[in-house]
Amino acid sequence: MQTQIPKIANDLYYIGVQDPKMRTFDIIMHTANGTTYNAYLLKTKKGVVIFDTVKAEFSSTFLKNIQALCSFDEITHIILHHLEPDHSGALPALHKLAKNAKILISPLALPMLKAITKADELPFETVWTNKSLDLGDKTLHFLSTPNLHWPETMSSYLQEDQILFSGDVFGSHYCDERLFNDKVGDFSYAFKYYFDHIMRPFKSDIQKAINLYEKFQIKKILPLHGPLLCKDPNQYINMYKKWSMPAKPLHGKDVVSIFYLSSYGNTLAMAKAICQGLLSNESIVSNMYDLSALDPLAMLSLMDESKGIIIGSPTINSDAPKPVWDLLSSMMFLEKRGRFGGCFGSYGWSGEGLEMVQNRLKTLKFRVPLEPLKARLIPNQDELKACEDFGKSFGQIVGGKMVEITL
Length: 407
Hints:
alpha/beta; Metallo-beta-lactamase, Chain A; Rossmann fold; single chain; 7-stranded mixed β-sheet; 2 domains; 407 residues; 12 helices; 21 strands; 5-stranded mixed β-sheet
């Protein structure tokens, strides 16, 4: 428990809370060091500004932190960079006490704001890039940064102190009472883990956000989770810039990866024929990977470098086997925009597992140009020739050519 309110800069304070016992965040993330719900308070000539709130169960501590610095009727603005419940959960309690405060959100955030507060009439205003807030001795510039990692996310920049309030970007699930990045020790693992599991699917949006951030001189970055990046903040921007770069073609060629699972070698035979068809295209590099022996981290790394992903699966008990679904599940951590997908496989009775895989790829927003390619049990020579043609067509499509499909 904090004994005093940490001061970050002139008239700027940390009013967030720590959750050191948290071990699993959003179901899928491990948090061995707990996490924090960061929020900030700024005193200005025109009133007090609150930057974000905290998880609902910590509302009492959050409100006490505010009371230690000001009265609730001094609060003129509440800025919500991101309305996920861990950052907006205490908003209803705060809004009841700070009734005169205007809530500032991005244009896409209004439905969520109403859902959180359960109020039809709210003193809110929408803000976006190029909008500013004059606070007398302080100036805030708002920056639209959608999809980092929800559509309504935004950032803001405190001009006089050169501070970026980044939202979830540049965060980490890492709880340490020392709070500041140069005091807490090495949290690099948590920082990269956070990027991989939250921000990695939005690489192109990260690039756009960084282009906005680089227009400003930044002395401090204040994220919504983890240590406050007050020393050498640009190193963290550079990390994100590197990690979010699009995968480069291997030797100047587009990569198409084939992930397969094969019970009796039949789907494997189809995979080899498809790979042969792909490799007939000199602009394509293709490799095959057996899902029964592939590490989950390797899956993600291989998919990340692939412009095309083709999945080979048998149908077992009217479904695709678990390793195939594990691969599809791991795609939540992958940016799908601009990627091509396809599927194939051998089956015994019904073969509907491939339609399930195809539908999942489409739901994930892959470009899926070809229908699933099936063979009953052992593929014959004509079916293997169809597999090779499938590979040729898929490779041409990945390379940008319009092809007439005759499979």
